[in-house]
UniProtKB/TrEMBL annotation:
Keyword flag Hydrolase: yes
Domain CMP/dCMP-type deaminase: 21-158
Species annotation: Chitinophaga dinghuensis
UniProt keyword list: Hydrolase, Metal-binding, Zinc
Name used for this protein in its record: Cytidine deaminase
Single GO molecular function: zinc ion binding
Length: 162
């Protein structure tokens, strides 16, 4: 038996003013696109903005449904949109923000488990890491250099015999 330790490093900024211009712009876009969310049930509006390696920008926002499990998170909407418009172009960075209409929006949020699995698939497909910039409408910002860092021991398709 062997014990393994997995750890990862991430950056925490006091606020958006500490980011470089390109990252600050992306996070501001994510903040803006929270307004496009359809979140009549949770009142928790999430925005995700992907910057592709060719410089293109793709937006996503959460899209809920009266049948709750049908709803889509902003991150997966952005991933699907990017793959649909530019299937051959890698995603370099995704900024994620939210507006909690019922409360505070000043803490960073990180992707849910399903979105982490979706991000892992895209990273494997494109063979390039996806940076994540996570921040609310104000307050601290977290940057993770590889989305996969958020899903240790992830399941992937390499063992599927199909
Ligand atoms: N949501 C996202 O869109 N992204 C996240 O990272 C966390 C949660 C959505 C799902 C649901 O529409 C609402 O936020 C409340 O969970």
């Amino acid at each position: 038996m062997a014990k393994q330790l997995q750890q990862f490093e991430y950056s925490v900024y006091d606020d958006i003013t500490e980011l470089d211009d390109a990252d600050a712009w992306l996070l501001n876009e994510a903040r803006d696109v929270t307004q496009h969310a359809y979140a009549p049930y949770s009142h928790f509006q999430v925005g995700a903005i992907a910057r592709l390696v060719n410089g293109e920008i793709i937006a996503g926002s959460n899209q809920e449904n009266a049948s709750f499990p049908v709803g889509l998170c902003a991150e997966r909407v952005a991933l699907a949109a990017a793959a649909s418009v530019y299937p051959e172009v890698a995603i370099e960075t995704i900024a994620i923000s939210y507006h909690n209409l019922n409360g505070d929006s000043s803490q960073p949020i990180s992707p849910c488990g399903i979105c982490r699995q979706s991000l892992a698939e895209v990273e494997m497909r494109q063979q390039e890491p996806i940076r994540l910039i996570m921040g609310g409408l104000s307050g601290k910002v977290i940057i993770v250099e590889k989305a996969n860092d958020l899903l240790p021991l992830a399941f992937n398709g390499s063992l599927l015999s199909i």
